[in-house]
Amino acid sequence: MRGEGLFTERAPNGRFQWQLKAMNGRVVAVSAAVYESAGDAERAFAELLALGPALVARITHVRDGLGWTWVVPGARGNPLVKSSRAYERYATCQNAFRRFMALLARLSEAAAVAGGAPGAGR
């Protein structure tokens, strides 16, 4: 499936989480938390979208295995959003976060033009 934007899905525990996909259909980022409903997941994403340029990633080495991941910590240190996968190189992980931020900015601009709701698929 191709399409850019926000997608909500049911997590293995029956709750919901969101994914942000690039135009080629590749998952760019996922919610770090799970939510009671798809609406709660979408509201959490809208809050993240509002933070926009203020987001800063923490890039860390994967504990078990090879690679690097990025995570955006929230106000209390709990992760808000994380990379969808591990990257072999540190620089590739940095670039993946930059692509996430660019996609977030594009969705924010589109939401402002459309009147509020971020681009969403399901």
From TrEMBL:
This is Uncharacterized protein. The lineage of its organism: Bacteria, Bacillati, Actinomycetota, Actinomycetes, Kitasatosporales. It comes from the Bacteria. It comes from Kitasatospora cheerisanensis KCTC 2395. Gene3D superfamilies: 2.30.29.80. InterPro entries: YegP-like_sf.
